[in-house]
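Researcher: Quick test of sequence recovery. Tokens follow.
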């Protein structure tokens, strides 16, 4: 999978002034461009942007990032396939280390921390897998999308027999 280009350089947070001072914090409140994040059923586009309200804190083994990311998503209703949109509030509670554990922690740079991977991961995990336009959506409009059931379909003759079985037609049993 190709690596995407950086969506917003405002997600690089300078930490040289707080590094090594356990308990020091940096508040991060900004609006950033996450680029495109997509699932089959829902997506986040670069406009509107994500609103971050985060706190970066120095801990003994690295740094912790906690807070929220608010984004608007769009998709299709799983029943009627009409466009649907919503806003999600993604909670973050992530750790950054010099030697990250794959799938568990994120990489910590010498003078900066890149919070973009953590924010993108948190947002994609909150996107709805099967969105609905309303809880009582009944599905497609039958006037626009007519459907038939087996009982309504015209009866057809039996399908033609496979010619390889034709020799068995002459077999008679007593």
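Model:
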């Amino acid at each position: 999978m190709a690596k995407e280009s950086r969506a917003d350089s405002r997600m690089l947070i300078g930490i040289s002034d707080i590094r090594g001072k356990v308990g020091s914090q940096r508040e991060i409140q900004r609006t950033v461009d996450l680029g495109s994040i997509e699932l089959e059923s829902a997506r986040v586009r670069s406009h509107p942007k994500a609103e971050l309200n985060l706190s970066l804190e120095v801990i003994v083994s690295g740094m912790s990032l906690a807070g929220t990311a608010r984004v608007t998503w769009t998709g299709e209703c799983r029943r009627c396939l009409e466009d649907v949109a919503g806003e999600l509030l993604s909670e973050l509670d992530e750790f950054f280390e010099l030697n990250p554990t794959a799938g568990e922690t994120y990489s910590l740079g010498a003078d900066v921390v890149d919070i973009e991977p953590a924010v993108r991961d948190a947002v994609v995990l909150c996107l709805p897998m099967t969105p609905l336009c309303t809880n009582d959506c009944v599905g497609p409009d039958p006037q626009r999308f007519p459907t038939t059931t087996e009982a309504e379909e015209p009866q057809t003759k039996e399908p033609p027999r496979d010619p390889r079985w034709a020799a068995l037609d002459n077999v008679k049993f007593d």
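The first helix runs from residue 116 to 126.
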